[in-house]
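Course assignment 3, question 2. Fill in each field.
Student: A.L.
Task: Predict the tertiary structure for the chain below.
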Amino acid sequence: MLSKNEEDYLKVLFHLLTGEGGDRAGTNQLAQQLEVKPASANSMLKRLSEKKLVEYQKYSKPILTPLGRATALQLIRRHRLWETFLFQKLNFAWDEVHEVAEQLEHVQSEKLIEQLDRFLGYPKFDPHGDPIPDAQGNMAVREYELLANIAPGQRVRITGMKDSSTAFLQYLNDLGLALHSELLVLEHIPFDNSLRLALPDGLTAQVSEKFALHVFVLRLD
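Answer field:
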């Protein structure tokens, strides 16, 4: 059985290795994400290596073993199922579920997670649009483009967020946006690459390029 700390390292390492720039993910990036010193990250990687979860040698890039990858996927599965449960059944806001799910994901009961998945109707995506791994670690493929790449005149539906931080989700709330909200791109502004959008409530808003680079959408027209 793994400790909470070991599980946290595995999950963060998985996200680093499978995200953008994963080929550059190393001890320093891992330490930065977990807010620990590089020496602490190095020590943990050695421990995970001894447990056959990570392939790692000092000054080299860590690699998840098949067992490590499978373990990380099950952690992500538990986390995203709990987020879905909190959002759908307990009326938590989508910017509130992450921190609670961080605690619940360490409950190590396979039967509980199987029953939770069944109770929720085997959801494919969590409240932020992220795919939920199934019991075998398979994930649905999310169809998306970045909002920043959508041309004026195109109508789109929000399918996910690259940033699921509380601050970003609260900003979306302030705009009256959520997962599955529909938008119309009205204009790209060359000066700063911002976008002017028609919102679901009939109002318009100008959003930054940074915002548009963190929202995944599906074309509707």
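Instructor remarks: The two ends are 50 Å apart (CA to CA). The mean pLDDT is 92.
Grade: pending
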